[in-house]
Amino acid sequence: MKKLVLYVLVFLCSGLQILVAQTVTGTVSSARDGQTLPGVTVQIKGTTTGTVTDVNGNYSIDVPSLEETLVFSFVGYTKVEIPLDGQTTVNVEMESSIYDLDEVMVVAYGTSRKASFTGSAAVVESEDIKKIQSSNIGRNLEGVTTGVQVLGTGQPGETPTIRIRGISSINADASPLIVVDGAPYGGSLNSIDPNDVESISVLKDASATVLYGARASGGVIMITTKKGEVGETKVNFNTSYGMSSLAMPLHYRVNNAEYYELHWEALKNGYLDRNSGVPISEAETYAHDNLLPRLGGYNSFKEYPLNPDGSFNTSVEPRWGSGIWEDELFNPGPRHEYHLSLSGETDEGLNHYFSVGYLKDKGVLMTSKYDRYSARLNLSQKVNDWFEAGLNAAFNHGIMDAPWGAGGTRFVTDMPDIYPPWIYDITVEDWARDEDGNKLLYHNGQKQSEWPGGWYRATWDWLNPLATMRDSQDIREQDNLSTRGFLNFYILPGLSIENSLSVDYAVNSFYQHWSGLSSYTTNMGGSSYRRRDRGITYTLTNLIRYSKGFGNHNISLLAGHEAYSYTWHGVDASRTGFPTFSLIEVSAGSNLTGNGSWEDNHRMESYLSSAEYNYMDKYYVSASYRRDGTSRFSPESRWGNFWSGGFSWRISEESFMDDLAWLDNLTLRTSYGTQGNE
Fold first, then answer.
1. Residue 283 half-sphere exposure, CB side, CA atoms within 13 Å?
2. Phi and psi at residue 214, in whole multiples of 5°?
3. Is the confidence at residue 278, as pLDDT, over 80?
4. Which of 63, 50, 52 is CA-nearest to residue 19?
5. Is the dihedral of CA 99, 102, 103, 108 positive or negative?
6. I want to staple 529 with a disulfide (CB 3.0 to 4.6 A). Which of 174, 201, 347, 574 is the partner?
7. Coil/strand/helix, residue 273
8. How far apart are CA 157 and CA 365, in angstroms?
9. How many CB atoms lie under 10 A from the CB of residue 266?
10. How far apart are alpha carbons 205 and 494 in whole angstroms?
């Protein structure tokens, strides 16, 4: 019996030993110069368990088994995967990816090697896109490349304001031109699922953007979607869950006690300024007597909050605390995302990529949210050696609830917390509640007051955002259908003719209602606004391309024609005076406050060309030209010419640089060009 117990104990201890996590340590450094790398992500492959290296490049991670594989990733460096194979110490050297000059990037009407490109551009690859969980692909440019500024309110799904190298125009639109799969995009950026994006190229200077002529003064953002890889069909399913919260706390605001003290001080000083020579005690008495009346009678403490000298009386008991508005309006919101894709390329040359996705982002504001349903199909077929055809198609349906937008933040920063969100009942020293026990937000149909006796707030007395968000709505729906079709003919070696037709179709619907219960429209009986607009964009592009190498000499020529057509039209209507609070449709309102319709037509015809030359992959020269004619100007001023020239010299490739082993790349680049803004 004793032996049996001993065997059982040995078995249990062995099992426990298996379950104990093993600790793996090491140092991560750069293979180029041996410097240690802080901030490198170290993750167990196939899991979300990971850590980051410290300031000295050291890391320590617990793994369930020494048979796991560690994945090391860092911006600007090639990802490294190391099987442990029983090791507890793993030191890693990471190769820089920044100096991969043979990398091909998407540029205007084609591709280019980084080494040969004479303009200024940056590329964001799919691996970097995945690192930022966003509801809008524009957000994935935030902080990943120089010269690009991304601004927004934090509303999930919102298309941010993007500026490339500052503001390019005082009065005209300074936004960059968005190009998706080679054609200007007529939809909204939030309709593009980041999971479907292979790369984003940001073209910054005139030399890089000139081939887009009159629409490129704000820079160009080129989005390339994914294709299949050679081999059997691959099935990928990704799901993620996270929480959205304020990245930084709102700026410091005085608490309730400090607010009373400061207001008392202002009343005293104002009295002394208006009544020269009066005793200070008289001014203090005036401030004491008028403090609460000037603030609408609101007292967030159960007794008068200040001492006779204006300092806070620490013995008084609070009715409610500071930060009450922020706590109610802003809360971490969940974010769910699901994405399924099938991709591959058959032996017959059929390349395919199909995906569906769903996103639900709650955001941080009380009732904000964004839902997106997306689908994409990219097909291309190499029929034979001289002919290729393809079609990229995507559909998106998005629903955004955007109550107040940035107004909620402004309200919190402006509103003193001595004014509560709910009605306070001083007879029971508690919040007034309805029959279900819910705190009351307002007196129905009355000017906003949470204080007995009909007192009103001294600021923002017309609005309570908690009530407004609950009773009102601001919903925006978007439907986007985008197609890119192409036919390519490879006539001779190096000579090709490329034809493409792109169509973008968008429908937007806006539903806005301000309740007569709790918004600034209480004296109007509420207000409703409806709008529906629809737009369609056509882009027809015909290009002829030729490239040839002659020993150490290489040339590339491009000529083309492009026709662009844009039509947008819509209707809207608004009314006030709703007989009951439950009716919100415009037709139920009694007072017509606005209605209208509009249509915008825009046409553009363009001719473009470019030439590139390099010698020995050391000296590069490029020139580009585009002529645009737009319907937005009179016939006398309709046409504009845009051109650029660029030169670059890879000094590091010269023989006199051979001894500088520490230098990977040194390039002298200069360019000049003209841009336009129609």
1. 17
2. -70, -5
3. yes
4. 63
5. positive
6. 574
7. helix
8. 13
9. 13
10. 28
* Share of residues in the chain with pLDDT > 70 (%): 92
Q: What's the pLDDT score for residue 606? A: 96
Pairing of strands 22-30, 92-94: parallel
Residue 671 in tokens: 């360019």
CA-nearest of 436, 409, 438, 411 to 422 is: 438
Nearest alpha carbon to residue 22 among 70, 54, 55, 73: 70
Q: Is residue 308 within 8 Å of 283, Cβ to Cβ?
A: no
Amino acid at 549: G
Strands (E), 118-258: 121-125, 148-151, 161-164, 177-180, 183-184, 197-203, 220-225, 231-244
As beta bridge partners, residue 613 has 555, 621
Joined tokens for residue 590: 């009694």
- The CA-CA-CA angle for residues 180, 182, 185, to 5°, reads 40
Which residues have a Cβ under 8 Å from the Cβ of 329 and sit 6 or more positions away? 365, 366, 408, 411, 412, 465, 466
Note the pLDDT tens digit of each residue in 20-42.
Answer: 578 999 999 888 667 788 888 89
Helix, strand, coil content of the chain in percent (nearest 5): 15, 45, 35
Question: How far, CA to CA in Å, does 10 sit from each of 5, 6, 7, 19?
Answer: 9, 6, 5, 14
Q: What average pLDDT is seen over the chain?
A: 86
- Comparing CA positions, the residue from 103, 105, 121 lying closest to residue 165 is 121
The answer to whether the beta carbons of residues 129 and 194 sit under 8 Å apart is yes
Place of tokens 């170290």: 42
Both structure tokens of 345: 């390329």
Residues 6+ apart with CB under 8 A from 382: 349, 351, 388
What number of residues does the chain have? 678
The neighbour count for residue 413, using CB atoms within 10 Å, is 12
